[in-house]
Amino acid sequence: MQLSEQEIVRREKLTKLREMGINPYPAALYPVDATSKSIKNDFEEGKKVVISGRLMSRRIQGKASFAELQDSEGRIQVYFNRDEICPGDDKTLYNDVYKKLLDIGDIIGIEGELFTTQVGEKTVMVKNFKLLSKSLRPLPLPKVDDEGKVYDAFNDPELRYRQRYVDLVVNPHVKDTFIKRTKITNSIREFYNQKGYLEVETPILQPIPGGAAARPFLTHHNALNIPLYLRIANELYLKRLIVGGFDGVYEFSKDFRNEGMDRTHNPEFTVMELYVAYKDYNWMMDTTEKLLEKVAIDATGSSKVKVGDHEIEFKAPYPRVPILEAIKIHTGYDVAEMEEDELREVAKKLDIEVDETMGVGKLIDEIFGEKCEHHYIQPTFIIDYPKEMSPLTKEHRTNPRLTERFELMVNGKELANAYSELNDPIDQRERFEDQLKLSEKGDDEAMFIDQDFLRALEYGMPPTSGIGIGIDRLVMLMTNNSSIQEVLFFPQMRPEKKQVELTEEEKSILDILKPQGEMHLADLKEKAGLSNKKWDKSTKGLTKHGLIKVEKTEDALLVKYTG
């Protein structure tokens, strides 16, 4: 492992601390009785406190030093005075441990008394301190100049998402997003619990990936010697519980879909699904409006939420627009009576990419997604989907070609999907068989036939309405974030590139080449000043590591930096 100069120095300090008999990672409980927030809120001059946190800054001035300590609630100023900490002749704890062996980022515990500085700053006078955890890597702290401009901020998304633990330390506002996320889920739980619905858990490993049209992750169970799938939805298991006699069940579930990644999709995501007996999709629309209005107020203090350039009003009621009418409004085409071939032609005329595996449902879905969805900024229920798009949904009571389904669109994206649930086992079997035909045509997102679920329906499921709400997208809306990675503590990332250890000769070649980007091979070799043997070995090594590439031009060989 290659260490930076600062990392080497910190390890040397670690060794010195141990040589002094100080354990840099003690095991004993530290009796914290206050936080930065509680001190500021309930400040009392002279009050004794025990606090702990991370050392984030300090200004050493000989025998005294002001510093900042950061804990889970914020920051507080602390004051180190040599004679307060070391009242006797031995000044080692201040002179050596505090001044020389502690670093920014170290976690310490402090016993002290509260006082107010001459400029009115609430501060802790340190009477004693203890090192609780030595930090071996320097924090990437931003620097602020005299004019208040920030430099070297830790804002590279790749690093922030990969090293969320650092992001949370040096960018305190990031924590606010995740605190708000918990407020949102707690608000939903409170809403449903007050109605008497039961929060449950269903299997993540499933023998059949049912409840949605999506590509699953596949694994293998060694003891049972069977394939298993990470769930793509928990719908079919929750419906089994409705068959079993529960009137209302809900679950916050981790679902997994082996599909693309972008600013609104992560392969692992959170969905809340609710199923209530003796209700229909009209009732679910009314209930969802009230839920989201409550969530917005609980999370942000208002039913109006700023999202990008828009102000989204979550106050009920929301408009209800049939999907086929939406397509007619935004494309000019009436697709209500069209068959598959006609729909494919319309899609092509609208410059929508289609293929032969797509059936009626997929084609309508593509047309709506490409040409209509983005128009719905304010919360809008898109309702009454064609039967081919909704294999788990009850047939519409007035039009047999449609189903009683809605999707809630907010800020141009789907936030929720809900149905009057199909409870006719014979109709459900036929719908599954239609999905099987799509699978045979090559649609790898078509649903499997779940024979056990069909058996459950044959015992009788009462009329039921169900909904799935994308929690990650809901949090994005409520926190004004445009990327799903911002609302996941640890989003899925591409594998981190291994740090390449280079020889001194390889480093010298890169030092010359990197500022230029590319150079003629002869010029680079001359500037490197290496023997033929070392040159050949070094350029081969750099090529192998993917850091340089040699290309032939009309008059010479060109070396390009590709790292």
From TrEMBL:
List of residues binding Mg(2+) 2: E414
Subcellular location(s) of the protein: Cytoplasm
Stretches of the chain forming a coiled coil according to its record: none
PROSITE patterns in the record: AA_TRNA_LIGASE_II
The keyword Metal-binding is annotated on this UniProt entry: yes
Annotated binding of Mg(2+) 1, by residue: E407, E414
Organism: [Muricauda] lutisoli
Catalytic activity: tRNA(Lys) + L-lysine + ATP = L-lysyl-tRNA(Lys) + AMP + diphosphate
Cofactor note: Binds 3 Mg(2+) ions per subunit.
Signal peptide: none
Official protein name in the record: Lysine--tRNA ligase
Subunit structure: Homodimer.
EC identifiers of the protein: 6.1.1.6
UniProt domain Aminoacyl-transfer RNA synthetases class-II family profile: residue ranges: 181-495
Primary gene name: lysS
Pfam family, one: tRNA_anti-codon
GO terms of molecular function: lysine-tRNA ligase activity
Cofactor requirement: Mg(2+)
